[in-house]
Amino acid sequence: MVTYLTRRLLSSALVVAVSTFLMYVLVDLAIDPLEDLRISTAPNRDQLIANRIARLNLDDPVVVRYLDWAQGAGGCLVGQCDLGINFRTNQEVTSLIAGAIGTTMLLVTASAILAIFLGVAVGIVSALRQYSGFDYSSTFVSFLFYSLPVFWVAVLAKEFLAIQFNDFLADPTIGVLFIVIASALVGLAVSAGVGGDRRRRLITFGASAAIIAALLVYIDVADFLVTPSLGLPGVALGSLGAAVGITALSTGLRNRRALYAALTVAGIGIALWYPMFFVWAALEETIWRVLGLGVVAVLVGIAVGFAWGGPDKGASARTAAITALPVATLLFLDRVLRSWPDYVDELRGRPIATTSRSTPNLDGDFWITSIDTFTHLLLPSITLLLISFAGYTRYSRASMLETMNADYIRTARAKGLNERTVVMRHAFRNALLPLASVVPVDIITLAGGAVITESIFSWFGMGKLFVDSLNENIIDPVMAFILVVGILAVVANFVADLAYAVLDPRIRVS
What we know:
Radius of gyration: 27 Å
Helix content: over 70%
Low-confidence stretches: none
Order of helices and strands: HHHHEEHHHHHHHHHHHHHHHHHH
Largest sheet: 2 strands, antiparallel
Mean pLDDT: 85
Number of helices: 22
């Protein structure tokens, strides 16, 4: 393993060095740092040109300038990073790239996680219900989203999900027609996904449509959009539903130990609903403390799973730990929603943002700023989500179809295993193999900067930094961008190799 890591590290370093050198030469040929001065009418134009040539060492050969830049970049290995400066603003590139990476990663993380989760889930269900109404519908929607131009989706999101929704919040009344149509569409989607004979589909359709209709009526009657709050009933229903659903997927409801462990975690969350208000008040909230509480919740779930024991303690611990995440999220979400009216007042009744990463000069505590971050992430995340979702849906569907037709799946069924075990324990894991090479690369591609999305929503991330620097003929920020993306690319390939080894026992990293 040590030999493999050493070999991969050396080869990756060589790839980064060669790629950065080639890109330095190409970028140097493509830009002209003296362009603005050549067309200048200043009386001392020649002196200004001479000063800039001396400042940027433009008289030196391109190889010498690259080696000077590479020496500063190599200092990052010992904590003395020097990636040059933006000679127009005299800002260090290290500070520029740090802020851009933070902005892009905030944007990419939210959209990538949702796209992977939803895309894989829909793709798997589509494969299991091949040639059904759900399969045809998901295929149509996937190709539709995949073909949509990003800038067009972003503009539509601004118009309908921000401007018109903000207008709607002035008098948020949900009409009967909308309730009927929304309930029917959700009922059709759920019944098609669950499948079964006609009687089962009708029962599923009626139950899911009734739940959605009741939920929309409650939102309308309780003025949920004006003063939202999950409350104890919302936390309780969500926690119990998560416990049952996760157990059904993880081990099956017949595994009583796992089910009781998940329900115990849900019960702990329900019991903590009121005491958590005192915890939130006593703590000086930061995102790291909130994440720390999430880690504590997972550890409690693991302990509960092992406490219930049984012949498979690991399965009970895994199920309880996974259940702890949505339960803890519901408690956090309930507290965040209670600050929504104050945030809306701060924004004068128009909370959904259309530009920038945050609201300038916003006066508020941790909860207000958390809502502000969410509202600013909403539109760009949805834009990136819709495009990425389509690809993951098609990849996961094709992979699952191939896996379900394999000989070992037929053998598992012949041995008498139930369908949940066949799908979740045997087929699902192997169906993820092709995604193991796609997902890391896609995430790195997004981390390199969603140029169009960042430009439309005015997020100063990696993509916008790259484009702006090229337009202004500044080579150092461009090379910093290439360096970061190059390093992330080789890391992504390494992670993909490790993921293959984890998912497929036949593959060994050596």
